[in-house]
Each structure stands twice: as C-alpha cells, then as structure tokens.
Write a structure and sequence with these properties.
Blueprint: E1 10-14, H1 19-30, E2 34-39, H2 42-52, E3 56-60, H3 68-80, E4 85-88, H4 103-113, H5 115-130, E5 134-138, H6 151-171, E6 177-183, H7 215-227, E7 232-235, H8 237-248, H9 250-270
Parallel strand pairs: 1-2, 1-4, 2-3, 4-5, 5-6, 6-7
Helix pairs in contact: 1-7, 3-5, 4-6, 8-9
Length: about 270
C-alpha cells in the first residue's frame, strides 16, 4: 500500500526516543510531515533528532508532568506553524501478580499509561481543534485480552481503550478524529523496561523474534490508520487473532490462559 503524503502536516509523538515512538517519527518524516518528539531519555532523543534532520525537533519531557506536552505543542506552533497529529505513545508495563504489587505500583502504572494520555490530549487539544486534527492513542492487544501477572498493565490498556471510545464521540463535532491503536508484540524496549520504568537495553527480549513485528512495519500500519481517521487498528497477525477470539469466543481465551498458567507453574517447579 502506498504511503499517503503528509506534506504540510505537523505531528507530535510522545515516548519518541526509541521503539514504536522512534518508528512513528521516521514514518511521519518519510511521508513529508514535520515532527516534534517528546521523551524522557534526553541523550537518545538528541541522537535521534540529530539524525532525522531539520524536519524534527526533540523536547525532553515527561507525560506525567503538567506542562511538558504543552511545551512541545508550543514548539510545534513556533517552529512549524501548528499541530495536526498527536501520537500518544508514551507508556510502560508493570509486571507482577496482584497480591505481590502495591497500590503505588498500580498508581505508577496508571500515571503514565492513562493519566499521561489524558494529559497529552488536554494539552494538545486546543491546537488540534484549530486544524481539525487527529489523535492516535497507543493501547495494546492487552486492552482486550487480560493475562495473569500483568494486571496493572492490562487494566491501564483497557482504560485507554475506553478513553479512546468516549473521546472519539466527544470530539467528532469538532472535526478531531481519535484512533485506538492496539499493537501486539512489536520490536521495542517495552519488554526490557522494569517496573520502575527503567530500560535495560542489553537485556534479552523474552518474545521470540519470529513472533515480533518490526517497529517500522507496525508504525506504517498505525500511521495509516490515524491518517485515514479509522476508529481502531489492531496490529500484528497474532494480535488480530487474539482480539477476534476474545470478542467472539472468550471461553477459548480463558482456557488457553489456564493451560498456559499450568505449564508455567510446572516449569517453575521443575526449575
């Protein structure tokens, strides 16, 4: 499928220093857009923006802090004339069984994955309304399929999916579209990030390579969905299967998770 040109458009990407966020930036630039990149890891952000050239500007910032996204929006306006697209991508995953996690673990998960999205939308919305723009909210297949040991993360992605559905209806009269983006296993730092949101870049990815979609392919599909103003895009083949089965035969998913948990428990005991 040919890329739809975004010449003359300006996009803001949060969580943009690596993984899907970096891939979003490259895809948007390839389509002719100008991009503003927001991320916490300043050194990676500086390296990326230097490589991307004059069409990209990096803003060190954190979606958990009031005003950081607003600064990025102001930069988009000052540097490139406005804002047309928001990709609310920043997020991480807290792992652990519910009984082993604290309330603060859940709070920290929601602060980035849910309130960070809300904050991003709030601070970008005035600029987006002015240009009848588009919002891409990055959720997950786990916004449909909940798995043991990942309650905090799955809860946050269910919340994000619900937020996208409500926001889509609320913003429709203003001409701003909202697309829920639900990737499955995509090449990123996600599975190398611990519960404190620290990235261990040299850690081995536990998901086998054959099951992981390259970030550039995932970004191309997700950008296309946002540009087309679609309501949703589930990305990766296994993700589409999982969501489809959950929607139409949830008992199959429950049984599969039960079998998987049993295998993991027996393996653990042998270890």
């Amino acid at each position: 499928m040919a890329r739809r040109s975004l010449a003359g458009k300006v996009a803001l990407v949060t969580g943009a220093s690596s993984g899907i966020g970096e891939a979003f930036a490259r895809e948007l630039l390839a389509r002719g857009a100008k991009v503003v990149l927001l991320a916490r890891r300043e050194a990676l952000l500086d390296t990326l923006t230097a490589e991307l050239g004059d069409g990209a500007v990096g803003i060190p910032g954190d979606v958990t802090k009031d005003g950081d996204v607003a600064r990025a929006v102001a930069t988009a306006t000052e540097r490139f004339g406005g804002l047309d697209l928001l990709f609310a991508n920043a997020g991480f995953g807290v792992a652990g069984e519910v009984a082993a996690l604290t309330v603060d673990d859940f709070r920290r998960q929601f602060e980035t994955n849910v309130f960070g999205v809300i904050r991003s939308v709030h601070e970008a919305l005035p600029a987006l309304r002015g240009r009848r723009g588009a919002v891409g909210i990055v959720g997950s297949v786990n916004g449909y399929v909940s798995i043991p040991g990942w309650a905090a993360y799955c809860m946050s992605k269910h919340a994000v999916r619900s937020l996208a559905e409500c926001l889509r209806a609320e913003l429709r009269p203003s001409g701003v579209s909202v697309t829920h983006l639900a990737p499955g296993f995509v090449e990123s730092d996600f599975r190398r990030t611990d519960n404190q949101s620290r990235v261990h870049r040299h850690a081995k990815d536990p998901v086998p390579g054959w099951l992981t979609m390259p970030a550039d392919r995932a970004a191309r599909a997700m950008v296309s969905a946002v540009v087309a103003r679609r309501a949703e895009a589930v990305v990766t083949g296994h993700g589409k299967v999982a969501v489809g089965v959950q929607r139409h035969a949830p008992g199959v998913v429950t049984a599969a998770l039960r079998v998987g948990a049993g295998i993991a428990e027996r393996f653990g005991k042998r270890g």
